[in-house]
Every structure is written in C-alpha cells, then in structure tokens.
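Supplementary Methods. Inverse-folding protocol.

Structures were first reduced to a discrete structure-token string of length 190. This string, shown here, constituted the complete conditioning input.
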C-alpha cells in the first residue's frame, strides 16, 4: 500500500474511532451513578476525606496509581503533570497510591509532579473501586466522582494500560511502522 493509500485508510479508521468516542460519550451521559462512601485518605497534613478532595469543584478525577514500584504508572503520572492545570481548571484532580505520604512527597519531588496526592494505605478505597486484584496487587486506573448535594457518586472509571486513551506515548509509537516493539517505560533514560 503506498503512502497516500495508507493515509486515506488511517484517516478512515480515525473517523471510526471519533464516531465510537461520540457513542461512548452518549452512554456516559446516560449512566446511573454509583453511590460511594466518603473514604478517608492520608496526606502529609493528616487525614482528608473524599468529599474534601473536591475543594470547590463538583467533579473529581482520582487516579488509581500503583505507586513507586511501577514504571508505567510513573509514566502516566508524568503525563498528567503536563496537563494538570488544564484538568484542574474544570475538575479537582488527585493521584492516589498505596505509598505513605512521605514516600509520595519524595517521589513526586524527584519527578517534578505538581498535582495533589493522597495515600489510600489502610483503606478499602482502591479495592472497593475495583483497583486491587484478588492476589492483593494494585491496578492502575481513573475514577470520576461527582458531588451531588451531600452524596458522592462515581460516574465513570477506566483501567490504565498500554494503548489506553490516557497516555499519548503509545499512540505516538503506533505511528512508527514497528510500533512499540520491545520498548518499556523506565524511571530515567541514559
């Protein structure tokens, strides 16, 4: 297939993806929200509840991050750091890990992260939201919550992983004919 033919084919596929995204938005608007508890998290300043994480916003993004032991979760968080101001202008945003607040602070400082972080250590939050496996391991993802009066509801969530909609790295690598190949994220590159 020559370049022009391939480009036309890829443009058609991208149009199909755009149409599918519109269908997903329509389902998202019709979803029945899931009531959730007002979980307690730990920060360097002490305990904070899920409802407090909203600040003055109605919507809240919570990133379920596996913590300092996961290079992929670190890459996703590096990407969120770049768009944090844009996201925070519309909704509250926080990254939740099983690490202690002191470990989070040191790791975030080394990465230059600017967004707020909370520790769900000792809480059932990640498990209740579906981001802890049966073997006890953590899973990455994102949950979106809304505050509706005195009630907190989860209105959507998605797992994070290679090729998802939340990390541009894999999509850019998809434009290289060989794709990702044997590449994997690292904490630092030589």
């Amino acid at each position: 297939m020559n370049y022009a033919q391939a480009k036309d084919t890829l443009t058609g596929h991208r149009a199909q993806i755009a149409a599918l995204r519109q269908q997903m938005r329509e389902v998202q608007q019709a979803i029945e929200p899931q009531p959730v508890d007002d979980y307690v998290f730990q920060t360097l300043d002490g305990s904070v509840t899920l409802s407090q994480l909203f600040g003055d916003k109605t919507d809240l993004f919570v990133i379920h991050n596996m913590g300092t032991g996961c290079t992929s979760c670190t890459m996703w968080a590096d990407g969120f750091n770049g768009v944090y101001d844009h996201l925070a202008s519309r909704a509250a945003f926080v990254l939740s890990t099983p690490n202690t607040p002191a470990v989070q602070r040191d790791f975030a400082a080394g990465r230059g992260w600017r967004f707020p972080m909370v520790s769900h250590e000792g809480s059932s939050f990640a498990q209740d939201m579906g981001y802890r496996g049966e073997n006890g391991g953590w899973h990455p993802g994102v949950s979106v919550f809304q505050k509706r009066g005195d009630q907190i509801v989860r209105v959507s969530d998605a797992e994070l992983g290679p090729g998802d909609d939340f990390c541009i790295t894999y999509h850019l690598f998809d434009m290289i004919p060989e794709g990702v190949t044997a590449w994997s994220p690292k904490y630092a590159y030589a």
